[in-house]
Amino acid sequence: MKKETLQNILYSPLYVWFKLHAMLPLPILYGLSDILFFPLYHIVHYRRKLVQENLRNAFPDKDKKELKQLEKKFYHHFCDYIVETIKLMHISDEEMRRRMVFEQVEIIDRVFAQNRSIIILLGHFGNWEWVPSITLWTHTTDVIFAQIYRPLNNEWFDRFFLKLRSRFGSICIAKKETLRAILQMKRTGKPSITGFMSDQTPSPANIHHWAKFLSQDSPVLTGYEKIARKTDFAVLYFDVEIVKRGYYKTTIREIALHPNELPEFEITDRYTAMMEKTILRNPWAWLWTHKRWKYKHENFPDS
Questions:
Q1: What one-character-per-residue DSSP string does 191-232 give?
Q2: pTM to 2 decimals?
Q3: I need a surface site. Which of 34, 218, 253, 292 has the fewest CB within 10 A?
């Protein structure tokens, strides 16, 4: 029996459980999210020490009470993220348009009208799994939508998330295939828009630049900037805001319409500053479970 078939059999009860829950209205799912918070936070202690350390380092001026409130609010939102992501299995385009609103979409359509392509930068903020619904908002036809992702170790969950992330018509590109896939899209002659989740820690071999981010000297990803310069793709930022529970607003902002007109790492620095501003607006809505600051600048003297 093939490994994929065996996994589908073993995980079929979980898939059915997800599917049944996805059919529930979101208000009911948020009730389940409130219930999920207790075991996740108080019993499982999912990455709590890491979250606490990240919050202390990012907000040195906050006292213990403020940090504890922020920590709990983060875990409540993380549970919301889980049920909202499951809901992608059974949500209409109309409901998604109501819950994930995009503003300044005309920037995208203006770049497409020039037959140019776009790199979108964003972070693990709000519900990033809902962001691919941008396909419901643009007015340009015959466009390629894509997103870069890191494959999961569990193959069944990897396939599950790939299906969810392609729900609105975008294609998923494994990180190691990024440049090849983008060049292939460029050769089609069609405009494309490719999303990069760019708030993670680069691997040691890819640490080339550091920036002050959330009170800390932080290594930052730079691959997207190199690709933007190589392809002359415009670079935009998705600035996500929490309107209220289950409702998000994403404002599209310019980072660089012509990347090669800027100094090296200027695009990266602009994105980092924008991402920090987004986080500081609602800090509990960022993914604090990242091992974001595991490398120290003094250990990388050449970067």
A1: -EEEEEE--SPPPGGG---EEEETTEEEE---HHHHHHHHHT
A2: 0.94
A3: 34
